[in-house]
Amino acid sequence: MTITNEGQVTSNNISQFFRRELLPLLADLRLAIVLLLVIAAFSISGTVIEQGQSLQFYQSNYPEHPALFGFLSWKVILTIGLDHVYRTWWFLSLLILFGSSLTACTFTRQFPALSAARSWKFYDRSRQFEKLALSAELDANAESRDLASLNSLLQRKRYRVFEENNSLYARKGLAGRIGPIIVHASMLLILLGSIWGAMAGFIAQEMVKSGNSFAVNNIIDAGPWAGAQVPKDWSLKVNRFWIDYTPKGEIDQFYSDLSVLDREQKEVDRQTIYVNKPLRYRGVTFYQTDWTISAIRFHVNNSPILELPMAPLDAGGRGRVWGTWIPTKPDLSQGVSLLAKDLQGTVVIFDAQGKPLSTLRRGMSAEVNGVKLTIDEVVGGTGLQIKADPGIPLVYAGFGLLMLGVVMSYVSHSQIWALQADGKLYLGGRTNRAQVSFEREMFEILEEIERSPAKEALKV
User: For the segment 240-277, what is each residue's pLDDT rounded down to a tens digit?
Assistant: First the structure.
């Protein structure tokens, strides 16, 4: 009587399906190329289409009528997730599938190829040399035409030589077989870093007035595991924000003097940042990206210094302008409007009918509505983009390994066999790349071991 274990049969069927069907499909180079092209295409879309913007932004820039390219509207972008490509489930699935393909290829092809390259097999029959790309047959009567002399010669050419009885095997360039494995490992490391960064990273934006402290709160895009990266026990203070202008009045560079504060509001780090020179602290990077005019400081007659916020105004595409309204009577029944376009301290004052009354600079005064208005300071604000990507070290390490693996992959793996039998010395070899250089090396070996004017023909 035979008892069949149904569970064991099912398990065997699954195992056979994985080995015979799924594993060869994953290891197929064509699948890897297609996945790589698809990933590249969607990565480009994530660069072209602005990521993490508001609904109003996509509605105004990607309307339905007319849709970009006839189909790309804000609804399509939000439905597919093109507003946060790198964190969508389907993009992460593509990365995981591509990583699985690389892993399958590594274990089914690269490791067996390396194992075969590391093992050695001696040729003990002369007809085996006929199958090699390069082979020669020499008379073994001369003293220099023996395996011992050939062994010494090959070692001088940096071959690793194995000898047994009347057979010899030599190889060099094993790094050329290890290189593809390192390339695959580096790509897996890059994918792992990308996934980790997408899941645990975040992007935030803050507009902070000069002199104010702030915590990172305005997060516009974050992965599901980003909570650990958001600063909780430290904050920042904008000590000062300023802009350098060219002689023509154009912006040359803008700067933010930032201090990192601990829980007790003690300064633990301080740096001045500008465009392309961010501040990095505990895995969080603060970039200088924008600026604004936050407030105007002034006094009326002999009053203390007063401060009013300034708001951006619609200038009809003619640059950036900020404005505010300054009361000139305690009951707020009268006042003037004040406009500024930069931090150089120049402001323009308008009356209630919109007529310009005066143009003032910092420290200057003007008589308006029966009072003396003095401008003390135009207060700027810094626009910061804040990013945390814990996967960056893995990505950088992966690219470093990738360069190393590519260089190693160009090393030729060369093999040489020799057999001394029946008064003959049979010699042959093959290589996986740089065929011309290997042929030249084989001719040099023959010339050195032959040591006679007559040369044997090398069959190519």
Answer: 999 998 888 888 999 999 999 999 999 999 999 999 89
Q: How far is CA 152 from CA 55, 79, 323, in A?
A: 75, 70, 88
Domain spans of the chain?
7-111, 120-173+412-450, 199-292+383-401, 295-379
Class of CATH domain 120-173+412-450: alpha beta
Pairing of strands 213-214, 202-209: unpaired
Whole-number Cα distances in Å, 397 to 43, 198, 206, 215, 296: 20, 17, 31, 31, 48
Cβ count within 10 A of residue 182: 20
Omega before 63 within 30 of 0, i.e. cis: no
Helices 29-48/89-105 angle, 10° precision: 150
Crossing angle between the packed helical segments 147-156 and 435-450, to the nearest 10 degrees: 130
Kindly state the tokens that stand for 255: 């700067």
Residues 81-122 pLDDT 10s: 888 888 889 999 999 999 999 999 999 888 888 888 888 789
Please check the confidence at residue 196 and state whether its pLDDT lies above 90: yes
pTM > 0.90: no
CA dist., res. 221 & res. 204, Å (int)? 7
Q: Which residue in this structure is represented by tokens 């260089």?
A: 407
